[in-house]
Amino acid sequence: MIGFPVFPDHDEPGRQGHGEAATRASVESALHAAGDLDAREIIVSTLGADIVLEGFVRRHGDVERSAEIAESIVGRGHVHNRLLRR
């Protein structure tokens, strides 16, 4: 598990000083810090209280691994995974 902050109330802008940009940045950082994932072609955006992952991954299992990492930050059910494997 990567040691990044979890924002259980990430849908409330300004709560504890964290808004959508901070949540998106935390997810991006976690994806790029994961030693078992190549996140160079992953785009992270927000959709209201949710995170959207778009782009491409290369290895089998990276789609699911990316979602796991994002969910560890924003919570289960708050990640829309639109990643494709090349």
Descriptive keywords:
86 residues, alpha+beta, 3-stranded mixed β-sheet, 2 helices, 3 strands, 24% strand, globular
How would you summarize this macromolecular structure in one to three sentences?
The chain is of the alpha+beta class. The chain has two helices and three strands, in the order αββαβ.
Structure overview:
- With 86 residues, the protein is α+β, with helices and mostly antiparallel strands.
- Helix content is 31%, strand content 24%.
- The chain has 2 helices and 3 strands.
- A 3-stranded mixed beta sheet has the order 1-2-3, covered by helices on one side.
- The longest helix has 14 residues, at 20-33.
- The radius of gyration is 12 Å and the shape is globular.
- The model is unreliable at 11-17 (pLDDT under 50).
Please state the average pLDDT score: 86
Poorly predicted ranges: 11-17
Strand order of the largest sheet: 1-2-3
Task: Supply the number of helical segments.
Answer: 2
Tell me about the largest β-sheet. Answer: 3 strands, mixed
Which range best describes the helical content: under 10%, 10-25%, 25-40%, 40-55%, 55-70% or over 70%?
25-40%
Kindly name the structural category.
alpha+beta
As a percent range, the share of strand residues is 15-25%
**Terminal Cα separation, in Å?**
26 Å
Shape estimate: globular
Cα-based radius of gyration, to the nearest Å: 12 Å
How do the SSEs run, as a string of H and E? HEEHE
Quantity of strands, as a count: 3
